[in-house]
Amino acid sequence: MEHSTSFNDSNNSLSSQRSLVSVPSLNSHSQFLTPSTTSHTCLTTLKFLTSSSVYISSLTLAGKFLYAGSSDREIRSWNHTHFIQNQKPTTTTTTTTTNNNNNSVVIAGKGAVKSIVVHSDKLFTAHQDNKIRVWKVTNLSHDHQKYTRVATLPTLADRVTKLLVPKNHVRIRRHKKCTWVHHVDTVSSIALSQDGNFLYSVSWDRTIKVWRTKDLACLESVRNAHDDAINAVAVSYDGHVYTGSADKRIRVWKKLEGEKKLSLVDTLEKHNSGINALALKSDGSVLYSGACDRSILVSEKGENGKLLVVGALRGHAKSILCLAVVSDLVCSGSEDKTVRIWRGVQKDEYSCLAVLEGHRSPIKSITAALDLSQDPSSQATSFLLYSASLDSHVKLWQLFLPLLST
After folding, report:
1. CATH number of the structural domain 28-385
2. Which pLDDT value is given to residue 18?
3. Which domain of life does the UniProt lineage start with (predicted)?
C-alpha cells in the first residue's frame, strides 16, 4: 500500500500542496557565489536491461562501490570509478547499458528495495515486503562483489523467543496479532548509529525499531511513533534520532541518561504536507527536511538540543522526494524531474548553485561524494552525484565549485 499521492493522479498531484509561506526563505540574492561561477556535466547515464517499468528505488555510495536497489527486488553494485575514468566533460552524454558482466547482482524479497546502508563488510537493505536483510559482502576482484545473506530481520531466534511470551504480542489488526519485533508494513528507511553498533528502521506501520548490529537482535520498538506512515530516519553522531512522517511532523528521539529506551524529546510541526526525506549536516548541527509542500526546511539544533527552523529553500516546482548532504552541499531531488544543488554562503543564506536537468520522470534517490580523482592543484572542488529516476535511468553528474575563501 502506498502512503504518498500517485505521481499520475492529476486531480491529486503532490505539486498542488501549498508552499510554506509562513517560513522565511533562505534563498540568497548575493553575488558572493552564483551559478555562473560553477559548472556541471552529466558524465554518463546507466540504462538497465529490464522492463521500462522497473526503476532504481535507492542508491548509496560506499568507497569505490555504488549500490542500487530496484523496484523489482534487485540489489546491484558497481565499481563506480570506471564511470569517471577517461571521462572528459562534454556537452554529449554517454549511455552505458548495464548487464551482469559489469556489476554484481542479487534478488531478494518481494517489491522494492527501499533503503541501503553499508557498514564494514555488511550490507543492510530495507524492503517493501516488511523485512530487513543483512548481507556479508566479499570482494571477489577489483570490480566484483559477492553477497551472502546472513540474516533476515527479525531473526529466527528473535521470533521464537518473543513468540513464547504472551506480553510480546501486539495487535496489528482487529483479529490479528504478532510479536513486537516484526514490522508489519513496508520498511521505508534505515540508518546506522555513528559507531555502527545500532541500526534504526522506520516503517509505514508507524513504528521505529532499534537493532543491535553485533547479533542482529531487536532491542526496542516504539509503537505509534507517528500518526501516519514514517518515510525517513536520520541519526546524528550524538545519538539523536530524527523521523519524518506523512503526518507532516518531524520527531526527535534520544536515550536519556540512565534510560534504556528512546524518549521523545522534540516535535517539529512546520511542514504543510507529508515529509519524504531527511538529511543531516555532517556535524549534526543542521537538519534538512523535504516534503510535498515543495520546500526544504533548514532546522538548526539549539544548545538544549531542540530544533529551530531558520528558514526554507525554495525553487523546486513539485514535491521534494530525496535529499543528500556532502561536504557543505545540500542536494535535493524532486517530482519536478530536477536535482538542485545548494550551498550556505553566509549566515541564514543559501545559494542554488545548479539545477541538474535531463531525467524524464521524478527523481527517486540521490547519493553524492567528493571526487577523489580530482587534480589536487585544481582551483575548484569536484563532486560526483548519482541521481535515480522513475524513468529507469541513473545519471552520473560531475560538479565543479570554486574553492571558498577562508
Report:
1. 2.130.10.10
2. 59
3. Eukaryota
Distance CA 31, CA 137 (A): 47
CB 236 within 8 A of CB 230: no
Tell me the CA distances in angstroms from 367 to 58, 125, 319, 330, 387, one per residue in order.
Answer: 9, 16, 18, 11, 7
Counting every residue written for the chain, the total comes to 406
First to last CA, the chain: 50
| Cβ neighbours of residue 362 closer than 8 Å, sequence gap 6 or more | 7, 318, 319, 321, 333, 334, 335, 336, 337, 389, 390
Cell 528507511 found at: 189
Q: Are strands 275-280 and 262-268 parallel, antiparallel or unpaired?
A: unpaired
**pLDDT for 108:** 92
> Considering all CA atoms of the chain, what is the largest pairwise distance in Å, rounded to the nearest integer?
67
CA–CA dist 362, 56 (Å, integer): 12
| Residue pair 235/256 in contact by the 8 Å Cβ criterion | no
**Side chain identity at residue 168, one-letter code:** N
Rounded CA gap, 388 and 116, in Å? Answer: 14
**Residues 239/240/244/245 CA torsion (nearest 10 deg):** 90
Q: pTM here?
A: 0.90
What cell does 247 get?
A: 503526518
Alpha carbons 217 and 274: distance in angstroms, whole number: 31
Looking at residue 348, its pLDDT comes to 83
Type of residue numbered 216: L
- Contact present, 97 and 112 (Cβ < 8 Å): no
Contact 288, 341 (CB under 8 A): no
For the chain, the domains span 28-385
Residues in CB range of 263: below 8 A, 6 or more apart: 253, 254, 255, 256
SS3 for 41-81 is EEEEEEEECCCCCCCEEEEEEECCEEEEEECCCEEEEEECH
